[in-house]
Amino acid sequence: MKNIIILLIVLFQISCTSAQDKQVGGRCEGCEALYEYGSRSLNSVDTIPGFEQSAAKMKVTGVIYLNDGVTPAKDVILYIYQTDERGIYRASTDAQGWERRHGQHRGWIKTGSDGKYTFYTFRPASYPNTTIPQHIHATVKPPGYTDYFIDDFYFDDDPNLTPTLRAQDKRRAGSGIVALKRENGMLLAQRDIILGLNIPGY
Question: From which residue to which does the signal peptide run (predicted)?
């Protein structure tokens, strides 16, 4: 019964947004996961499951701006998900919906009037036996627009982030490459997001 209620909430949220919002960003497989927060009350801070147990704790902050790059954007939902420290999208034993593919290390944030967001997580690993850079996936849902993916969060010190890959950066909502610094035993990253920047149809 609980699963049916969650499904109905997700379908209701999708139906409420898709009919009236401007279609932007192109095809976005998995963007439906942005609506899987269910009945949670979202705010500008979230903690990804696994943060407390991790040895590579990380705090990611920034401001989401309107398309002018100056005005803070209110009521924007930011959905993030990532691998674990072995490079696996590991789901919980009772996973439902997109958690079965995105894993349990994910979170939802909703900006206030200052546009700020913060999430506490850990540094993800590359996919096993690959040279794909470490990354955190991100999707946004601004008021009045459909949800769309933005450039992943990448780490500037990752040796797998080659000059060739850096040159392929599409800069959707701005570059996703972040510099990391360490403070009080925690990695810190900062990235501002500009809604609509390099997003088709915006």
Answer: 1-19
